[in-house]
Amino acid sequence: MRHHSTFRQLEIFEAIARLGSFTRAAEELYLTQPTISMQMKKLADIVGVPLIEQIGKKVHLTDAGRELAQTCREVFAAMDRFTMSVAERQGLKKGRLALMAVSTASYFAPRLLGEFAHRYPGIEVSLKVTNREQLLAGLADNLADLYILGQPPEDVEVEAKPFMCNPLVILAAPDHPLAGQEDIPLARLAKEPWLMRESGSGTRAAVERLFAEEGIELRPRMALGSNEAIKQAILADLGIAVMSTHSLTLNPPGQFAILKARGFPICRQWYAVYPAGRQLSAVARTFLDYLLSQDRALNACPNA
Ligand code: PGA
Questions:
Q1: Any residues with CB less than 8 A from the CB of 26 and at least 6 apart, and which?
Q2: pLDDT value of residue 3
């Protein structure tokens, strides 16, 4: 049978088994009854045992028939999976992927995107980098397929997939008097001149939350609009700041001191987020799977 029965015969047989009628199977498959009967006779000859018993108008399956019906379902399900995966790969040949990421994610997102774009050269990729507040506005306006940020929004229903850890540390100039000290109390740190990100920044919100939870007031000396500006200000001895270790990717080790304070590092995660209930495009779904598969390679928490 393996060598002789055709896919068409199995399709006809499956339709008869499912619909319990030659007539209805003929209708469904746009075939004539004599064709169907002939094909089923051939199939039974190939198998070597009867598959169908017809009593009056009723169609009954023999034991072998039932087994073959189950086999047909398995074969067709496997074929469906195959067809879908081909279609998906075709879909991935072309397409667009729009991402929005918070500014701190710009230290790693382009690299991840680069690898993805390399793998799928036909996909047009765009990445918009903003701070957290603007990203949340973008989410509300549906501007992108996926959003990368350090904390899922609390007031919007989203799917949030953590894919990498994001330790926040306190950076100071390498010769800062607190550098090298252990277990510095937050109250002591609060006396330092603080450099903060602009309001609307996720990093800033995380720092403010930590100090507020401890009931300690933090009076920023200066607000700066980017991680890079803050790093320059630290090196100019203007103060200390909390920052993601990812922002140090391109800095030589030892350029900054990392102060060892209670409650630090703040262990955050990077999340890929999209509106709850949204059906992701094949491209977005593939990028998300790719991000989640990065977990192990990138999940090591430097300095944490
Ligand atoms: P930010 O966001 O770049 O706006 O500070 C970072 C974060 O959400 O962790």
A1: 32, 33, 35, 36
A2: 53
| Structural domains of the chain, ranges and CATH numbers in brackets | 7-69 (1.10.10.10), 74-164+269-299 (3.40.190.10), 166-268 (3.40.190.10)
Rounded to an integer, what distance in angstroms lies between the CA atom of residue 265 and that of residue 169? 5
Question: Rounded CA gap, 126 and 107, in Å?
Answer: 16
Model-level pTM? Answer: 0.68
Atom of ligand 1 nearest to the CA of 197: 5
Residues enclosing ligand 1, CB less than 6 A? 102-104, 131-132, 149-151, 197, 201-203, 268
| Residue 221 vs residue 79, higher pLDDT | 221
Q: Which atom of ligand 1 is nearest to the CA of 135?
A: 4
Interval between CA 57 and ligand 1 midpoint (Å): 71
Q: Which residues pair with 213 in a beta bridge?
A: none
Q: Best mutation site among 131, 136, 230 for ligand 1, i.e. most ligand atoms within 8 A of its Cβ? A: 131
pLDDT of residue 202 exceeding 60, the answer is yes
- The model's pLDDT over 7-34, given as tens digits with 9 standing for 90+, comes to 899 999 999 999 999 999 999 999 999 9
Q: Which atom of ligand 1 is nearest to the CA of 203?
A: 5
State percent of the chain over pLDDT 70: 95
